[in-house]
Structure formats: C-alpha cells, structure tokens
Amino acid sequence: MKYFSVLFPAFFFGLFARAQEVVRLTVSSDVSQQQAPVTLNVRTHKNIRSATVRVNGRDVACQLDDLDRDGQYDELSFLTDIKKSEVQHVVVNLSDEEWTTAYPARTYAEMMLRNPKVKEKNKHDIYLTAITLDASTKDPFTVLHHHGVAFENDLVAMRIYMDARQTIDLYGKFHQGLELYDTQFYTSPAQKAQGYGDDVLWVGNTFGLGALRGWDGQPSLVSPVKQRSQRIICAGPIRTIVEMADEEWAYKAGEAPINMILRYTLYAGHRDFEVEASFNRDLSSSLFSTGVINVRGSEEFSDKDGLRGCWGTDWPATDTLNWKRETVGLGIFVPTAYRDREWPATKDNYTFTVKPVGCQLRYHLAYTSDNEDYGYHTAKTWFAFLKDWKKRLLHPLKVKVER
Q1: Does some domain include residue 385?
Q2: pTM of the full structure
Q3: Residue 246: which domain range?
C-alpha cells in the first residue's frame, strides 16, 4: 500500500490561533482506487486533540496517531474511493478540544504474555502494548502468546514471530470481520463451526510472507542481537501499525552492529500492507533479503520487475489429522529503488536481494486465502490482482493543500 504525506508549511500553521482550524485539500488519482489511504502530516500543529474529515461534503472516518509516543499527534489518516481523473474536495477540521466520534472498528492488534493459569488457548488475558527481550532469553518464541504481535483488518490477519526468524505467519478468514480478539490465533473447534478462520500457512525457517533477513550468499536470520522488541503503535478505524526492533544486530563479521526497526502498516479494507525498515546508519552498500515461501507445489508468478507471487496448497501444521490442507496466494512488490536482484526459486523461497537507500528500505506484501468468501480462488485471478495492485502502488494519490 502507498503511504501519502502532506507537509503543512510552518507559516500556514503559524496563522492558527483558534480552537478549531480548517484545512482544505484536493485529492486526485490517475487510476481508479477503492479505500485509498490519505495520510496528512500534522506534527507542526502541537495542540490537536480531535479531527473530522469531509470528502465531497460527506463525513468519513478518520484517525489521529501519535507515532513516536511523545504525547502529540503526528498524522491523520482517512480512506477514500476515487475514480480515474476524479478530483475530490476534502475539508479537515483540526481541533484542540477533545471529542469522540464513534467509527466502526476495522483494524485490531494484540500482544499478550502467556498466562499459565489459563488452559484454553484462546482465553489468555495479559495484554501488552510493547515488550523488549534481552539476548539472554533462551527461547523468545515461547514468551508471548501466539509467539508475537498479531494484527488484522476486516480482510486479513497475521502474526510476527518474536525470534530470529521474525516471520510473518498468516491467518485465513472465511468471512469479512475482525476475529483475533476472539480466537487469539488459536481457533477452537466450536469457533471453526461458527465460521471463524485459522492459521493457513506453515512457515518453518522460510520467509513466510516477506520476512526481512540478512544476506551472506543466502538468507540469514536476524541474529545475534542484544535486544529484540515488539510494539503496537496504533489500531483504529483506518489502520493498524506495529513495529519490530532489533538492537545491535551483528549483521556482518568485522563490522559494527546495526539497529533496525521494521514498521508494518495495514489499512482497513486492504489485503496488502507496507513494510518500512529504518536503520541507524547509511546501509546503501549493504544487501538484505526478502521474498515469499515456496508453498509446496506452488505456481510462480513474476513480472521480472519487482512483482512476484505464488499460488499453492500445503498443510499449515504437522498435524494432518486435525488440520486440512490450505490454499493461499502470496505476493510481494519491491520498488526499483530498493531492488537488487530476483533470484531463481529454491525449494523454500522465492527470493529478492534488496538494498536500503540511505537508512530506509520499503516494500509491499499481500495475500489471500482460498477460504475467503470475498477473495480469490484461482492462480489466474490472484495473479491478475497482483498486476493491478502494482499499478495502483505506482500511481499514488495526488494530494494538494489549498492555501
């Protein structure tokens, strides 16, 4: 998904002295898009407590987020459906008075410790917003319930393993809606009978869906590190953002360790999400790796220009008696600026080597489960989605502030 920012000039906000301010925008697009995200940078205005958004005179849900936890909102986001060449007029009201507008929940994120007193796997109750584990923790995979932070929107859900793999593991839904609060990634037989989804991918030591790894001629795990952290930044009607941080990763022998923060941004109504890696120094000359798992017997797709995916069927667990085989479609898009090379498929992965630009690296991921009553059910239709998805990523919305 594309990330859109508008920087308000300092003099513009300097004129603000009232409790409520109005910002007018025009939004246009070169291609038709549904639920296209618009994100406004509002850091310059220090006293925002609430906001409303109207698109062509119609109220739409919006979300204010404090991304750095300094007590001030940094960004406002909303979604819009827009046709090719259409121009939409947007009125944003920013206020230093706090009020609550009830928008339907469309994203969710959770992280929790295992509670030894709880026997049912979907009833754990020690909720966290952040955790840091020291390198002396011998088995970080077992510390957190469902092995790491989990996040979802109304279409897809996933978790990120809290270990050296940092793999993104997938949950497949049958019907649209939020489910993780109820199932905690461990769906009971009764919930399955009610139509809840479940884990649909076996990942092992593969990339799963788009894990970022090192590269030493082949993918290498994110280890050793001094500390490893996960954090939920936000979850609301528009988007959820979660982070994975690795401190003092000994990436290459003979070189100083690096610090890496991986930020995952998932918008409501999207089966795709963005991965943004930030490093503590310029790593433009370094290579990393990412890609998607080669699902057993999968059919591969590649446009040889950064877009790659597969469609395949496999068991999601070693227990073949209590699980059924699951069919998934996976996709990754690496923009030209960050792409080094597409490698031939191995039995485990479809691999890219990637390179940061300065201290930043970005790419995009998407998936579907054949279980969905709203998704894709053949390799042909999934690969067609991937092509259209790339087209939309390469044609971001055009957002202008009307002075």
Answers
A1: no
A2: 0.93
A3: 107-372
